[in-house]
UniProtKB/TrEMBL annotation:
Matching PROSITE patterns: HTH_TETR_2
InterPro entries linked: Homeodomain-like_sf (IPR009057), HTH_TetR (IPR001647), Tet_transcr_reg_TetR-rel_C_sf (IPR036271), TetR_C (IPR011075)
Pfam families named among the record's database cross-references: TetR_C_13, TetR_N
Organism in which the protein naturally occurs: Amycolatopsis nalaikhensis
Entry annotated with the keyword DNA-binding: yes
Keywords, in A-Z order: DNA-binding, Transcription, Transcription regulation
Stretches assigned to the HTH tetR-type domain: 13-73
Protein name: TetR/AcrR family transcriptional regulator
DNA-binding region coordinates: 36-55
Amino acid sequence: MEAQAAATTPRGKRTRDAIVNAAAELMYVDGVAGTSLDKVLAASGAGKSQMYHYFKNKDQLVEAVIDRYLEQILGNQPAIFELTSWADFETWTEQLLDVHRKASGPIACPLGNLAGEVGDNPKLAPLVDRAYRTWESHLVRGLETLRDKGELAPDADPARLAQAAMTSVQGGLLLAHLRHDITALEDALRIALTHLRSHRS
């Protein structure tokens, strides 16, 4: 995929951010297929020439939206950046739950929405997977830290454990949103932590 143009001035950054934010909101509700570039332009207030300055095609815009979703997701769970103890993993799960305990929750995971829609798209599916792998990478790093400290079994595989935890998170998010019941996510996170702890040293 061709590189996206970077915003080099404060005004340019505001314009690009407005386009990406508008696209992210529309795609969250209407999906990629249901979000036309004309809708994004109308919602963002940007002109067509500005749109095509930053994004050569819709796939590039979707890529930027995926990055924005990941930024928002990780911003809601800051503990994931500093996982140096088992207590930190507890804090991480509580931060995840706090997002979905609000009056509007449980909410759908924006990456999960995209995965369901573009999972068979050879151009876009790898971009969603890359975002998931970035999310997982913070769990991997935390588990490696625990292993280095002697708090995780030497033969434990941090990458596999992180993948299993992510699988629980995504399944819990899906059912919690679908059923409007946070217990699915609570149980999924409890299962994930129990599995991780079963590999304690």
